[in-house]
Amino acid sequence: MNTTPRRQTSLIRPERERIDPHHRQYHTHRRTQHEEEHYRPTLDRSAPTRRSVLRRGILAREDEEKHTIDEQIPFPTKSRRCDLWITFCYVVTCCCPPIILRSIGKKDKSAQFAYREKIGLVSVILCLMAFVGFLTFGFTQVVCPRPPLSFRIETLNSGYVIIHGWAYLLAAWKGHPPVPAWGNVTNPIYPPVNAGGRDASMLFQNINGKCYQIITPKSQTLSVGQPELPTYFPCRLFSNDIPDSATYGNHSGCHTSDAARSAFATMTSDGVPDAKGKFYKAGRIYYDWMDIYATDHLAVYNSNVLNLNLLKALPPSLFDVPPAGLIESILANTTLYGGQDLTHIVASHRTPNTQWAQEASCLMDIIKVGEIDTKSVGCIASDVVLYASLIVILGVILVKFALAVVFGWFLSWKLGNFKEGCSYRERMRREMEIENWTSGIYRPAEAIKPRKSPKRTLMPRTSRFTQPDTGSMHFNAIERPGSAMWKQSPRYQDSRALGQFGSTVGPISETGMRRPAGSENSRSFSSRRQSETSPPSRRTSVSSSSGLTSTSSLSCPYAISRHAVPQPKRDYMPFGFALAHTICLVTCYSEGEDGLRTTLDSIATTDYPNSHKLILVIADGIITGHGNAASTPDICVSMMRDFLVPPEEVQPCSYVAIADGTKRHNMAKIYAGFYKYDDATVDPSQQQQVSMITIAKCGAPEEASESKPGNRGKRDSQVILMSFLQKVMFDERMTMLEYEFFINIWRITGVSPDKYEIVLMVDADTKVYPDALSRLISCMVNDPEVSGLCGETKIGNKTDSWVSMIQVFEYYISHHQSKAFESIFGNVTCLPGCFCMYRIKAPKGSNGHWVPILANPDIIEHYSENVVDTLHKKNLLLLGEDRYLSTLMLRTFPRRKMLFVPQAVCKTVVPDSFAVLLSQRRRWINSTIHNLMELVFVRDLCGTFCFSMQFVVFMELVGTLALPAAISFTLYLIVLAIIGQPAVLSLILLALILGLPAVLIVMTSRKLVYVGWMLIYLFSLPIWNFVLPTYAYWHFDDFTWGETRKVEGETKDNHGDKSGEFDSSKITMKKWSEYERERKLRARMARPQRFQQFLDLPGDVASENDRSSSASTAVASRRVTSLQAAAVSTRQIATSPSSSHTGTLRASSSYRPSSSASIAQPTDDLEDRDSQDIGSWRQYSSLDYSQRVESVPLDPLPSLPDQGDDWTNVLESIDTVYQDSVTPSQPSPPPHGEDDDSIA
User: Helices in 1001-1098 by DSSP H: which ranges?
Assistant: First the structure.
């Protein structure tokens, strides 16, 4: 395989990328900034070697150390400066001083500021909803007011009179003053005047306006407006005929009085009143361009239609016009200007001493007869906004629908498929089985159906002459022992001889299931992954005469439980893919025995081999749930048997919890054993041997009197595992809890903790389908780019109440439309915490390199944030920790895949009372909003601009915030449609939004019953889109779990609040090698007569009693401390020039973080010590604890030989104590890969 570094999706070279505190992998880079060491991959077990730093130039000369530049950028200290957001929050709450806030229950400053932030967010949401409403209804009215009543000239009837291009309805008007010549007639449209349907513009001429300096009297002594010259034209009615200029002397029809002008202005502004006092607005007379082109006397100027023939009624003997002007040109040849648009002609006229633009404005005052039928700029802008919004919204809806259909038809059934059930009929039969399975969540666990072994390939895939690649394990079956990575001790082999796998695989002892041996997987990655996960014999840098124990002779350093499930052969693939060791994490709080039993039964009886799964239950404090007879930890421990240490002898261990103040120090007990079935829920013939560990957080001694001792939240439970995996992978200092966790995993499973690759996270009220675990792991194994998965969550209590019934379709559509659409792009934005899977580490390349995924320092650094002091952080970390973990995975690894696997199914119990639903959705809605805020700023998601996941996330954010306004507008549109004023486009869009899910059901699942559930959901839309969001927005500052989890004697409080100061001296952190040295010293002190043979003792000398709290062990520990102190003094006396390197071998180091430092950030003195520990995450990604355990020294080491820069690491230095010479190994090039998860 070609491993040459190549440019992939990024346009920036990884080695030139600026790593600042805002970089998504800043904390991962910090661990390797000061370390120049590279490493050999997992497959070459020699210790890492120091490599000279080479310039990336032509000569590749070695840089001098003095020229190296420290590019570390310190993390900026947090400042409470008055930024824009804080200022805005104080401005909108200026009327709420602290005294008022204290009176409403906001006692401390943090609660008061959270209230101010809530008001600020609510203000932003109200402004957003107002903007959406304005854009929907008000924008058109502002930029394009509703056009007045319009008429074509030929459609006017005799009830209207035209004045200056506007038609006035005078049929019912009785307001004209009496005229002696008319008799008693007060309406001019009737005889004898007969003005109906005619133009009366000449009766109301605009004089001395824009024509004041244009049309002037010939006589210098007269002016327009005087009795001799009252108007420009004769005051006559006209239709198609033009008033004769000879009739100008008759001024009886001229309405020049102030009363007449005032009455006309009232009619123009208010309308024409009828006999009942109702006003009728004037209507606009319009022409189209065909009307203009068809005549030779109509012209257009600035959208106004001018009748050029009316200029012939101007008495030439009385008035003058500008010479060579526009009016004179028109009078000279009307047909030259008629039938066209004069706007361009007037604008382009450049003759000196002419004022054509002013003359054109004058003509609009006196000969305007109507307007051209055009849209204004505002109306055009309104249409553009309307149709652009419609296209975007409709496009997103249709694209999501289309891609969801594509996913359902072509992709969903392939994910997690074991090459069975490929036909449509078989898939439908399986879906029917799942639907029947979800009907009752507390039913007994189903039997596991055996699967057929995959067929063996006919042709061999390798040759006996094929040589393995350097640093790889391809085609080398001899060097690939079992996946446990160590060879069992003779005692363990004797006691478990029947469980060992030979060439012919027999039954797995104590599991209750038989599996035939499978051949290698035909898929390229599975076979490659199998090769990568099985190591060759250890290649060290020492000579062959070294006395170190090789891999073939290594034994497990601890006493393995006699009930442990043995590891199968390396080619054991019951599902057609290489198996991966998996931890099944179950977090519990106040659940009862029924819920816990259901969850653990479903996991224990899954068809995934028990040799590769470990059940890990973490009880979040000593909590007694509402209606429970025992506390949750006691219930969990009661479901175990065959303990490594009797439960009554288990001692609590300290660790650093996720909290602020004194609560950062927490204690927990670790119970290791095997799952204990209940014959009433699982048939004895189906009961298998499944390893199980329970971590019960019990709290510090000073918490014993509190209501919930040890409770730190679900996120703390997850971080216990995640931080442990990071420290195992990076060989970092561990707390005593983590070291005990390490030992118990190894002893109960026979597998080193660094071999686990996958974590399944399940809530304690979730029941997993029997093959769900295998299908999820299948996706992980077959595609190394997948970092997270989730299955479909179905409801187990659909018909308990109307509250549970309205949630059925909501669950269905959120999976099969939203998550299906996101899976097309590999960016599922939310992996539900009740049922999801994450990859701990991912293989990199073909030479055995690993990349931390869930164990990534950047993931854990942000997820373990203990100082939660803003409303945004509290909603992310206290209410929506599950969704925030998905957000962190997308932000840190935007090019990896987060997928939805419909084949993997679980069922859960949803709230069946409205109070619990209200509390649950308050947490979900608020956490969704704040997580979408985080995702909006992730620029590396696929796509660009409107065609990107970032834009879809932005639309989801706006849509979520505007939900109350949206449902209000929807009801308003429905009301308008009922009363007969339908908004057609809006109704079409609404129909598509509400109707496409039904089409999706018919096209993908063919489960017509969900159409019925959809109708129930539609009737409950006001609850989903108005009641629940409004309640959630107003409770932005409520960080409790409310009615979701009831605890006996619990009072309402905000978890995460600070109390007291953290005393870091109570927690000691040491490296695994230091713990191992102390363990061996304790063992030697207990057996002083075997001092000379101690180094050759098997690892199981540290029996279960060695870690008990007996008096002999306590005495031995004190002797060990004295021995260490004496040894350190001896070393100082015998120090050689190179002895400064031994500073990394100190036996212990107290964890002393500053008050503002997070858990992953040690203090300066510890950081200095760590800078001498040669290693990086690359080195520790290839760490094999089973092959290093024999290298842990017994006594403090003497001075190391002076090797300069060629010594590799601490453990190899330990090896040199027992050797005569050291041969430095040649460094191998570092792994290269994508920009998203490799370190240049």
Answer: 1009-1019, 1021-1022, 1028-1034, 1072-1086
Same domain, yes or no, for 325 and 413? no
Pairing between strand 766-768 and 897-908?
antiparallel
Residues 813 and 954 reside in one and the same domain: yes
Cβ pair 556, 1186 in contact under 8 A:
yes
Show the beta-strand stretches assigned E in 873-933: 897-908
Q: Are residues 266 and 405 in the same domain?
A: no
**How far is 794 from 796, CA to CA, in rounded Å?**
6
Three-class SS state of 653: strand
Residue 50 resides in a domain: no
pLDDT of residue 919: 93
The enclosing domain of 804 has a CATH number of 3.90.550.10
Q: What's the domain range around 345? A: 150-374
Contact in structure between 794 and 865 (CB atoms under 8 Å): no
Query: Is 1089 a domain residue?
Result: no
* Beta pairing class for 1149-1150 and 1068-1069: antiparallel
Contacts 24+ apart (CB under 8 A), 137-141: 137/969, 139/382, 139/385, 140/382, 140/386
Q: Are 84 and 841 in contact (CB under 8 A)?
A: no
| Nearby residues of 272 by Cβ (< 8 Å), 6 or more positions away | 168, 169, 170, 173, 279, 280, 282
Last residue of a domain, one of 993, 1011, 1034: 1034
Question: Which residues are CB-contacts of 631 (< 8 A; sequence separation ≥ 6)?
Answer: 622, 623, 624
Contact 776, 904 (CB under 8 A): yes
CA 887, CA 866: separation in Å to the nearest integer?
18
Output Rg (C-alpha) for the chain, integer angstroms.
42
Q: Indicate whether 966 belongs to any domain.
A: yes
Question: Among residues 1034, 1049, 1075, which one ends one of the domains?
Answer: 1034
**Residue 296 shares a structural domain with residue 428:** no
Q: DSSP of 412-451, one letter per residue?
A: TTTTT--S---SHHHHHHHHHHHHHHTT-TTSPPPPPPP-
pTM for the predicted model, two decimal places: 0.72
d(CA 488, CA 496): 10
Total domain count, the chain: 2
Q: Which residue is listed with tokens 């700023």?
A: 937
Burial 528-559 (b: 16+ CB within 10 A, else e): bbbbbbbbbbbbbbbeeebeebebeebbbbbb
Q: Look at residue 635 and give its three-state secondary structure.
A: helix
Give the containing element (helix H, strand E) for 273.
strand 272-273
Report the C-alpha gap between 666 and 711 in whole angstroms.
9
* DSSP per-residue codes, 666-693: EEEEEEEEEE---TTTS-GGG----EEE
* Inter-residue contact 1036 to 922 (CB < 8 Å): no
Residue 334 parent element (H or E): helix 334-337
Whether residue 279 is found in the same domain as residue 405:
no
In angstroms, rounded to a whole number, what is the distance separating the alpha carbons of residues 565 and 568?
9
CA pseudo-torsion sign 730, 734, 738, 740: positive
CATH of the domain at 220: 3.10.120.10
Phi, psi angle pair for 661, to nearest 5°:
90, -145
The answer to whether residue 1047 is domain-embedded is no
Is 1142 within 8 Å of 1210 (Cβ atoms)? no
Three-state SS at 694: strand
Same domain? 821 vs 964: yes
pLDDT at 1097: 44
Residues 311 and 416 in one domain: no
**What is the reported pLDDT for 1172?**
32
422 and 292: one domain?
no
Provide the token pair at 458. 């006919």
Q: Enumerate residue ranges in the chain where pLDDT < 50.
A: 1, 3, 7, 11, 34-73, 75-81, 450-455, 461, 463-528, 530-554, 1091-1183, 1194-1240
Among positive and negative, which fits the CA dihedral 151, 157, 158, 159?
A: negative
pLDDT given at position 179: 72
